[in-house]
Specification:
Distance between the termini: 40 Å
Number of helices: 2
Shape: globular
Helix content: 10-25%
Strand content: 25-35%
Largest sheet: 5 strands, mixed
Low-confidence stretches: 162-194, 207-215
Structural class: mainly beta
């Protein structure tokens, strides 16, 4: 479904944890990282498409999140010809997106990258809000920066309390609250917790903890 200018309606999702870190997914069988996103089907509203994509890509349901804000207008990006199927060239131009800022209000063990038979991601991590844009595919960087900038003023006040420190939970070094699923470091060192599907790999160009986009 394309508009008159050749842009396909789409939604993008910025998912926050209680520390205002964002969900960052690694595309399956690739080294690129991105936010969840997906097309709006005929007859769907942007919000309906957002909740459908939220479940299909990260396994969450509406009761797992709170809508904090959305972009006022469509944000567009053009897709280079080399990424467009040959049969679509000439009439498909790119994507126009409504971006949603969501806050996770449940445990992150509810994240599930295998909620459908066609997963989009094979690993995930929490990242600082100002994600390293140099690891986003080049033609999407402008839209990412516009969405993050517009929605930044709606960021909730970070909650650093140990609200999930209870049975079955343990606090990691650095304050992240994760379900206990321990692994041993090399050499029999201290244990740490790893949420399902999470990756220990840092995306290329990732900023050290505590840094912002402006350094």
């Amino acid at each position: 479904m394309l508009d008159r200018e050749g842009f396909r309606p789409n939604v993008g999702i910025i998912l926050l944890n209680q520390k205002n870190q964002v969900f960052w997914g690694k595309r399956i069988r690739s080294h690129s990282w991105q936010f969840p996103q997906g097309g709006i089907d005929r007859g769907e509203s942007p919000e309906q498409a957002m909740f459908r994509e939220l479940h299909e890509e990260v396994g969450l349901h509406p009761e797992h999140v709170r809508i904090v804000a959305r972009t006022r207008d469509w944000l567009r990006y053009e897709v280079p010809d080399r990424f467009i199927r040959r049969e679509s060239r000439g009439h498909y131009k790119g994507q126009k997106q409504i971006w949603y800022l969501l806050q996770l209000i449940t445990h992150d063990w509810n994240l599930n990258l295998r909620a459908t038979d066609h997963p989009e991601f094979d690993a995930w991590r929490w990242n600082d809000y100002w994600v390293p844009l140099d690891v986003v595919i080049e033609f999407k960087r402008g839209v990412y920066e516009m969405a993050l900038t517009e929605l930044a003023r709606f960021l909730p006040r970070p909650d650093h309390r140990n609200r999930y420190l209870r049975g079955g939970m343990r606090q990691r070094d650095g304050g992240d609250m994760q379900p206990i699923r321990t692994q041993e470091r090399h050499g029999g060192g201290p244990r740490f917790a790893l949420p399902p599907g999470a990756s220990l790999d840092t995306p290329p160009g990732a900023m050290p903890a505590g840094r912002t986009k402006n350094g």
